[in-house]
């Protein structure tokens, strides 16, 4: 099981951040249709992907707190 | 704190227009000036401006930086200090813009009179490139650091930059991204005890002998991170420069409504020269004589897009692009602009790329139109052939439109997920912007 975070979409690709922070282009057609920027993805052993909704929510909240603490 | 200052400024203006309480007005102005200098030294270092129009002694002139920001026409930057205690001749009116070649990404260094601003820092693996470049120029402190938006090709290298230089004001949009690259950037800022300023459209800052005004983002919420991009217009004498990160057409349209005069000599084309940005209306408004594209050679996203190159060519705008020419250095003396390279000549081959790609995608199944020219081995998918049939591919349609789209396409007003087969059976055709699969 590999994990990714969708950094952005560029045309037909989702540019995804791997756990080692390097990036990989994954065709959007391989991902769930509802995939959005910032979603945490899990690649199953059969090569299919699903969105880890809980992990996505957790990271959003955690990083929102960090950002809010930094604004003047 | 800002609200307090604003209150004082407004009070000062109110009192000064009220005929009486002259002594108080003077006192309030003194206090205001004191506070301005104390709080934003980097904003107040500029003195002895050579622009005659700005040489107004009225204290009220200075208030324009903090208030009345919505209707500024910044052809005449109002916020410059007019302290005459320093010799104006001692200052240089040269502004340099370095569009640093960081491959697929953006990183732009602006320098004026030994003050520096960095807009974006490329991908994470380009941090070292940017740091080395800044060191070579002699940068010790970045007076401003703008992270236009949280995508890795704009912010990836910034953590390393922050670790290596003194940093003044950091400007970032108020939007969260979940990537570790973004989180690392925030951690780096926190570890250095720095703070972040939210961009406010109309706010104006001085950098050396030049100034810049925030022109985007206008809204607080967008559907995609690109539209959160901080846009700025730089002014150096009569020369001006517009940089909009990856702001897409939605944000470009908002910039047109700010009331800020967008006309500029130089436009860094949005989103690496992609059709998601660079609308005709926006280019009409900026009306640049020079366009810049920051992109990686042979990038897999087809940047810059042929449609944008065609548009630039048809408008006879001089083009410079980092993917073909490396780092571009633009110099302004306040009157004229020079560039360290000859303009890039758009060839028929550049404009043919689209047609070839279209022909190719008709022959084969849906593949990356840039695979042929790309040597990037990171693309795992380019080897995984798309043998999907149209029943297994999901596309998105609207209630009434004649096109079908990818998820997230800006043309999706209503969003109905269907299989590609269904979309084709309805007689819908692929959107030209998001280029969804065709079979």
Layout of strands and helices, then pairs:
The complex is a heterodimer of chains A (72) and B (439).
Chain A: E1 2-10, E2 13-18, E3 23-27, E4 40-43, E5 49-51, H1 53-70
Antiparallel strand pairs in A: 1-2, 1-4, 2-3, 4-5
Chain B: H1 2-16, H2 22-39, H3 41-44, E1 95-99, E2 108-112, E3 115-119, H4 127-137, E4 141-146, H5 152-155, H6 158-164, E5 166-171, H7 180-191, E6 196-197, E7 204-207, E8 210-216, E9 231-236, E10 239-243, H8 249-256, E11 266-268, H9 280-286, E12 290-293, H10 306-314, E13 318-321, H11 322-325, E14 328-332, E15 337-339, H12 348-363, E16 394-397, E17 403-405, E18 416-419, H13 420-425, E19 429-430
Parallel strand pairs in B: 3-4, 4-5, 5-6, 10-11, 11-12, 12-13, 17-19
Antiparallel strand pairs in B: 1-2, 1-14, 2-3, 7-8, 8-9, 9-10, 14-15, 16-17, 16-18
Helix pairs in contact in B: 1-2, 4-6, 6-7, 10-12
Protein name (chain A): DUF3006 domain-containing protein
């Amino acid at each position: 099981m590999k994990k990714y975070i969708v950094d952005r979409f560029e045309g037909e690709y989702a540019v995804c951040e791997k756990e080692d922070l390097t990036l990989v282009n994954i065709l959007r057609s391989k991902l769930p249709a509802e995939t959005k920027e910032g979603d945490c993805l899990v690649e199953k052993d059969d090569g299919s992907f699903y969105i880890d909704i809980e992990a996505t929510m957790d990271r959003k909240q955690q990083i929102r707190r960090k950002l809010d603490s930094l604004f003047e | 704190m800002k609200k307090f200052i604003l209150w004082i400024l407004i009070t000062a203006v109110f009192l000064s227009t009220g005929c009486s309480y002259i002594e108080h007005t003077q006192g309030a102005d003194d206090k205001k000036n004191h506070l301005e200098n104390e709080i934003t030294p980097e904003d107040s270092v500029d003195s002895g401006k050579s622009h005659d129009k700005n040489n107004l002694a009225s204290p009220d002139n200075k208030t324009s930086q903090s208030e009345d920001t919505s209707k500024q026409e910044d052809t005449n930057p109002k916020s410059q200090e007019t302290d005459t205690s320093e010799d104006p001749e001692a200052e240089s009116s040269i502004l340099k813009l370095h569009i640093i070649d960081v491959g697929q990404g953006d990183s732009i260094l602006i320098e004026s009179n030994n003050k520096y601003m960095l807009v974006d820092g490329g991908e994470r693996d380009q941090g070292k490139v940017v740091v080395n470049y800044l060191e070579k120029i002699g940068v010790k402190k970045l007076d401003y650091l703008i992270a236009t938006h949280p995508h890795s090709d704009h912010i990836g290298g910034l953590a390393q930059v922050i670790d290596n230089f003194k940093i003044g004001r950091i400007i970032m949009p108020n939007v969260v991204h979940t990537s570790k690259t973004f989180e690392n950037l925030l951690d780096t800022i926190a570890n250095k005890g720095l703070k972040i300023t939210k961009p406010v459209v109309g706010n104006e800052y001085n950098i050396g002998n030049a100034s810049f005004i925030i022109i985007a983002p206008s809204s607080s919420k967008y559907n995609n991170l690109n539209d959160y991009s901080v846009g700025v217009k730089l002014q150096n004498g009569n020369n001006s420069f517009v940089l909009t990160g990856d702001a897409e057409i939605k944000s470009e349209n908002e910039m047109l409504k700010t009331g800020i005069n967008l006309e500029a000599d130089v436009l860094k084309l949005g989103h690496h020269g992609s059709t998601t940005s660079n609308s005709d209306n926006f280019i009409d408004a900026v009306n640049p004589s020079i366009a810049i594209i920051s992109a990686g050679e042979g990038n897999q996203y087809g940047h810059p897009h042929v449609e944008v190159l065609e548009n630039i060519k048809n408008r006879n705008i001089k083009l410079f692009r980092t993917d073909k020419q490396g780092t571009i250095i633009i110099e302004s003396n306040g009157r004229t602009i020079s560039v360290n390279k000859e303009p890039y000549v758009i060839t028929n081959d550049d404009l043919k790329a689209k047609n070839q790609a279209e022909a190719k995608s008709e022959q084969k199944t849906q593949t990356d139109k840039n695979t042929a020219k790309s040597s990037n081995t990171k693309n795992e998918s380019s080897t995984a052939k798309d043998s999907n049939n149209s029943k297994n591919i999901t596309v998105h349609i609207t209630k009434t439109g004649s096109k079908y789209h990818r998820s997230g396409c800006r043309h999706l007003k209503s969003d109905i997920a269907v299989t590609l087969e269904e979309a084709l059976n309805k007689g819908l055709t692929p959107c030209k912007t998001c280029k969804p699969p065709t079979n």
